[in-house]
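cache lookup: miss for this entity combination. No prior model stored, computing from scratch. Input as submitted by user K.M.:
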Amino acid sequence: MTDELTQLRQRFIERGGQITQSIGIGRVIGQSFAHIYFSPEPQTLDDLTEALQISKGSASMSVRQLEQWGAVRQVWIKGERKDHYQANDDFGRIIRRALLDLIGRRMETTDTLLEDSEAYIKRSKTSSPDPESKFMQQRIKKLRHFRDRAQYIWDSSVLRLLLK
Amino acid sequence: MTDELTQLRQRFIERGGQITQSIGIGRVIGQSFAHIYFSPEPQTLDDLTEALQISKGSASMSVRQLEQWGAVRQVWIKGERKDHYQANDDFGRIIRRALLDLIGRRMETTDTLLEDSEAYIKRSKTSSPDPESKFMQQRIKKLRHFRDRAQYIWDSSVLRLLLK
DNA sequence: TAATACGTTCAATATGGATTGAATATTGCG
DNA sequence: CGCAATATTCAATCCATATTGAACGTATTA
């Protein structure tokens, strides 16, 4: 491979790491994917530790995460005992799965609080309406509406757009 | 305010902090917004430092960020020297601005690398096509296509969906 | 203009979460 | 089965970055 190509490749790996780092999922994941994506031959964990100067643990964990998002897949090479991985190039599917995972995780855990709040509102409908309580009820309602709409948009549109 | 309401409010603040922390923009921003959002009266920086037990610097910085995203606005209260802030409840607009800011920031810096790569491809069209170079060219092309589509989707759809 | 009250900045520090690597589990092979 | 090679786990460590707070800047009042 020419020097220039090697250099470009190196820059892609670096940038991949910067991107994943900046979105808060760690530098190694981006580096690992970039390395595999720009390797003509399927790569092993040892290839990763050597090329990226990372630990065995990091290599193992990053590849597993990438596999879960469908960003890489394992391929069998006869006569070899190590696991070999090659990159998927359908970025739409990859991003979709990753977002589903990362954002979905977050939406789950917020609900009980809103439910508790609505339960409170329902109960307090009967009692005297002091102004502060009124205010809180308004705000909670607004928040609930937004949450519902966000959920709807998320479910119905964003995924389809990114998928293909 | 009733005990129960106070408790709910506290939980919203905590959760706000968890959310912003988990997306990598710091706990204080989420806490600050939640506190202001659930306050009937406009709040000062000192209110924030006291309620959230954070430093003056943190309060100042978080409020400024929130202001930049249109999540809070300053209101004048006659006879008061401190700045007072109240929350905007149009979450669509807030999220839109924040995403524009956070994601836009990232898209900018990625381009020169792709441009350099395409320049290389153009130049190497004439020279002998060794297999590795061929492979790299394919991968770069795929990446470029994805980047363009992502840009298009981002520009044309996502923002409009979230806006209203 | 000085004195005071408040907001902002940024170098220093604390903290959360990414990374490591030795210990452990698993897999492939004779 | 037992051995060797490879992969995974997770407590300890490290590091990026969020947070702090003293110093500085700015606005208001008398």
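stored under new cache key. The helical segments of chain A are 3-22, 27-37, 45-52, 56-68, 91-109, 111-124, 131-163.
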